[in-house]
Specification:
It contains no helices and 13 strands. By secondary structure, it is an all-beta fold.
């Protein structure tokens, strides 16, 4: 339940974590970058210079699941990788990668 903004890199960097109820905005990198086995839920990622969510597999492991997030207005897009478990909003639509 954090407010993260104005960082010179990614707003949130997570590894093997539950990331829930955060706002990550106006960062120079991604709103969040997370490696395998993180779970991303009920967050807002907006107006970041990078992508909203960058959820990449670690050493060939599974990508992180995400649900109930709002992702909008990020310069390089909404979501890279990850497993969409539903109820997300990407740029004001329910269609998230």
């Amino acid at each position: 339940n954090n407010r993260v903004y104005g960082n010179v890199t990614d707003g949130i960097q997570a590894s093997h974590s539950l990331v829930i109820d955060n706002h990550s905005t106006d960062n120079r990198g991604a709103g969040i970058s997370a490696v395998s086995t993180s779970a991303i839920q009920r967050n807002v990622f907006g107006s970041n210079f990078g992508v909203g969510m960058y959820l990449f597999p670690e050493l060939g492991g599974p990508t992180s699941p995400y649900r109930e997030n709002v992702v909008s207005g990020n310069t390089l897009g909404t979501v890279i990788d990850g497993v969409n478990l539903g109820d997300n909003s990407c740029n004001a639509t329910v269609t998230c990668p």
